[in-house]
Each structure stands twice: as C-alpha cells, then as structure tokens.
Design goal:
The complex is a heterodimer of chains A (about 70) and B (about 270). Chain A has about 70 residues and is mainly beta. Chain A has one helix and five strands. Chain A has one domain: Ubiquitin-like (UB roll) (Roll). Chain B is about 40% helix and about 15% strand. Chain B has about 270 residues and is α/β, with parallel strands linked by helices. The chains are: A mainly beta (about 70), B alpha/beta (about 270).
Chain lengths: ~70, ~270
C-alpha cells in the first residue's frame, strides 16, 4: 500500500501506480489539469511513464475564474 | 491602427478583464464579449477531489485560440508559491508564457509584497516567462521591474476590489513617463470614469474584474468600460486643451457681428 498527499489530502492506494492510472482512478483523465509532483511539473507526455512512490506530494490544478 | 503591443503581439482592445466573481460561466462569457477584451485573466486552483468532474471548464468557455489567457498568481504570498503556480499554469496552457505575477503582502489590503514580487520576477524571467506584473504605484519599483525584464508594469489605482478609483494620479504619471513597456492600471477601478481618467493620464490599458462583475448589471458595465477605455485613449491621443490658469471664461462663439452690435451702430 502507498500513501500519496494529493492537494493536501492524504490518500491511500493498494498498489503503486502511474500518474495516468491515478488520473483515471480520480476521473480526471483527459481533463484540463496540470500536475506538480514534489515541486516539479509532470509534463503531460510523461503521465504514463512516471510511477508514483510512497509519500509523493501532488498538486493537481485547474483554471478557475479570477482577476 | 492604435494597438496595444504586449510582448510582440498587437491587441486592438486596451481593456483587460478578469473572470472572477461572476454569477456563472454564461454571465462571465457575456460580460467578456460586451467588454471586447482580448486579454483575460484566470486563476489556478487545486481541483476538488472526489467532486463531479463533469463540471464545465473555464478553458472550454474561453478557448485559448480566441483569447489571450493571462494566468495570475492571486492568493500567493511568497515568491516561491507564485513561481510554482505559474509553472503549473504554463503546463495547463500548453506552454503559454505570458502571465500575470502578483505576490500579495497581506490578506486585508492585498497590497503587493514588492520584495517577493521582485524575487519571483527575476526567477520567472530566467525561466522564460513573459511577465505582466502587479505592483504598487511606486515609480522606482516600477522601473526596477521593467529593468528585470517584465513586459508590462501594472500599478494599482487603489486596493484590489475596493472600487476607489485612482488615488495617486501623479505617481502614475511618473511611472508612465519613465516606462518603455506598457503601463496598465490594475486594480481599484470602480466605474467608467475611473477607467477614462487612467487612459487620459496616458496608461496603455486598464485591467479590471470587480468593477464589472460586482456591478448591478455586469453586461452593461462591461460595455460601459469598453467605451470608457476607448474614450480615454482617444482623449489622450487628441491632447486636451490647456486649462486656464485663472478662472475666467473664453467665449466659444465670435464676439463681434452679433445682431445687438448691428443695432447700436449704423454705417
């Protein structure tokens, strides 16, 4: 089991998974989002190949209204 | 054409608008259309985990092919948070590098933290961003931000969301006369005349959100702001008449050959 901190919330997963698999599990696949992993941007082209490890801190963001 | 040029791109509209505080996306879009703005600010926020992901997305409402989207760092109080936010924004917008940097000093005034703003600007310029920077109306700071490489200087007219108009037109004038990049008043505009005054001072543009979104009729106000910015720009280009130094009149109509004068003298 691994623990990930996603947008400040602790989440548990049964197995290791890629960024793409995580997004699928969160119903965020193909959504207009951007991801930062431990302070580094994860380019969209690397969603499939980057495997998340225990303790990773992720930020998943979207565009919202603002001034 | 009298275009606003920001980082090599020409815009016919000198009104820049935000997308916050609207009732819904439909109203947002209608107001933007009424404003004729081409540069639109957006914010970047954490996605809500576990909530419906079928909600409409702002980027579908405002296609980046149709508008120049300007991601901001609103809500960031440190250089580091602002830098991270803009890297996320660049990824979100497929490499788009034009951004609005704002690093705030405290939650009550939302006054810019200049030390952190300068720190962030230096890093972001090195990282290839083109920065439109929110700042105070301090002319020395404005010049420093330009020297760092910011592509537009955006001093406040008054505090964000206050609607109090231009508190220090004299400082804005110094900033404008010193600058070689566009100066855009950002924050504090309350109504159409505020926008016109900013443009008459020689600002290259005006950025606003609350003045439109929090008015009683945002669509009508967006249209008013479009006209106000255009009117102010035209007045600036036309060059105003000299103000008389003492308070007396100067007639607009010829002073002789009135019928009264012809009655008095027969020749």
């Amino acid at each position: 089991m691994i623990q990930l901190i996603i947008n400040g919330q602790l989440q548990h997963f049964d197995t290791t998974l890629s960024v793409a698999q995580l997004l699928e599990s969160m119903a965020l696949k193909n959504k207009r989002i951007a991801i930062e992993r431990n302070g580094q941007i994860v380019p969209r082209s690397e969603f499939g190949e980057q495997t998340l490890t225990d303790g990773d801190q992720l930020e998943i963001v979207v565009a919202v209204g603002g001034g | 054409m009298d275009n606003l040029i920001i980082h090599d791109k020409a815009y016919s509209s000198r009104l820049l608008v935000g997308t916050g505080k609207y009732k819904d996306f439909a109203q947002t879009r209608e107001a933007i259309d009424a404003s004729s703005a081409q540069i639109i600010t957006i914010a970047v926020r954490r996605t809500n985990i576990g909530q419906s992901t079928d909600e409409p997305n702002l980027l579908d409402l405002l296609p980046p092919t149709q508008f120049t989207l300007l991601p901001n760092t609103a809500g960031c109080f440190t250089a580091d948070d602002a830098i991270r936010t803009l890297h996320l924004a660049r990824e979100l917008l497929d490499g788009h590098s034009l951004v609005k940097l704002e690093v705030l000093g405290d939650p009550n005034t939302l006054y810019p933290n200049i030390v952190e703003t300068i720190k962030a600007a230096k890093v972001l310029v090195k990282n290839g961003f083109h920065i439109m920077v929110y700042t105070s109306d301090d002319p020395i700071v404005a010049k420093q931000l330009e020297d760092i490489g910011c592509v537009a200087i955006m001093p406040l007219a008054s505090l964000i969301g206050s609607g109090m108009g231009i508190l220090n037109p004299w400082n804005l004038q110094i900033i404008i006369s010193n600058a070689t990049v566009p100066v855009i008043v950002d924050a504090g505009v309350g109504t159409a005349s505020d926008a016109t005054i900013a443009m008459e001072l020689g600002c290259d543009g005006v950025l606003m959100n609350t003045a439109i979104a929090a008015s009683k009729n945002p669509i009508l106000m967006a249209s008013a702001m479009r006209k106000a910015v255009e009117a102010g720009r035209d007045a600036f280009l036309a060059g105003r008449m000299e103000k008389r130094t003492s308070y007396n009149a100067d007639p607009s109509s010829p002073i002789n050959n009135t019928i009264a004068s012809s009655k008095n003298k027969v020749t």
